[in-house]
Amino acid sequence: MALSFEENETLTRVGRGTPGGEMLRRYWQPIALSRELKNRPLKRRLLGEDLVLFRDDRGRPGLLTLRCAHRGTSLAFGHVEDGGLRCCYHGWLYDVEGKVLEQPGEPADSSYKGRVRQPAYKVQELAGIVFAYLGPDPAPLLPRYDVLVREDGVRALNARIVHCNFLQMVENSVDQHHFKWLHRTPKTRLWRDEKLTSEAKEWGILDTFTRRVGDDYYRTISLFLMPNMNKVGYHLPEDHPAAFAATHEGYEALRWRVAIDDTSTMHFTLYFGPLVDGKPPRRMPADQSEQGLLDSVPGKYRWDEETGWIARGDQDRCAQESQGPIFDRTSEHLGVSDEGVILLRRMLKQSIDAVRSGQDPIGIIRDPEKNNLRLVPGEYKLEGAELAHAAV
Asked: Which residues are within 8 A (CB) of 338 and not within 5 positions of it... i.e. 6 or more apart?
């Protein structure tokens, strides 16, 4: 069933005051990689808001609205010094909480600086990622997913901009039927008896994708974490007949699709590979955190001459961007294989309604005892009772 125009607007618009935007502001969102914070402030846009991110000379991260409270000059041109961020225009100095530390040119005994405040947001760092919270107090806990805090492996990070609405990327996370076609190999066309299931959980959606390859059945489990994350861990070798082109051999990936505004999205990925005999997985991706957030060119996708198809890292982006800046869901025709997409939209609507009524949306964590999350995706061959059930 297609969405109405009003429903599509509700789910895709992310600015302050919009239903979807207010819901997204109840969650911690990645905004940068820690290595991006050097000696200069960093301009960044999140949920339609222009912001400046910096690390002060005491090592503390700060996130302020972009334009100086004095005369509106961009603080992205400011100087990190003297315990805060100093505006380049008239020298007003702000700390990481938006307090005015200095107002050059004002009388020394003036109380003016105590009556002015630069709007500031909460930030935390974890696993090399800077997270921001743009919602009301009290802020929920920053989720401590296992791959963010485990100490028995190695991590790699990357981030890039995709030029479409965030929901197109998020829906891709629960649409496992695309594995066979978008991430095709010469062997995926041989898959048979595909079965997809999507199950609502307190943290999001558990998706399974079962298929027959010859006489054997294989199942892929991926996890969608509200409101815009997915966690995968595909363990089959890439040349296995049940594998697909997006297979991650021996490591897990946690991804965020974070709305910059209505028509562009930051895509953050954290890879985690457990050490085996002191060594990381053989195919562990290289860490690209030093490069920071990279941009991409809409319509320009790398081509793999060996496979005669779009290169692995651009396949999802190609499908999502080609739907348009904001996909018009009034024109779509959903089928049985879209069960995950339908469930996702229902959960987003539930979360929007919860925020409207003053409640927490799905997946918010406030109890420290529940903030140590071990959620295990995977891929495996079915045996015994599971095999009998799948073969029915």
From this structure: 175, 177
Indicate if the pLDDT at residue 283 is higher than 90. no
Amino acid at 390: A
Check if the beta carbon of residue 362 is closer than 8 Å to that of residue 350: yes
Instruction: Output the six-digit token pair for 163.
Output: 């030029």
DSSP state of 368: G
| Widest pairwise Cα distance in the chain | 84
pTM of the model: 0.94
Q: Within this chain, do residues 125 and 159 fall inside the same structural domain, yes or no?
A: no
Report pLDDT digits (tens) over 46-55.
Answer: 999 999 999 9
CB 155 within 8 A of CB 284: no
Q: CB–CB of 274/284 below 8 Å? A: no
**Is residue 314 assigned to a domain?**
yes
Contact 125, 61 (CB under 8 A): yes
Domain with 106 in it? 29-133
Give the pairing type, strands 293-294 and 153-162: parallel
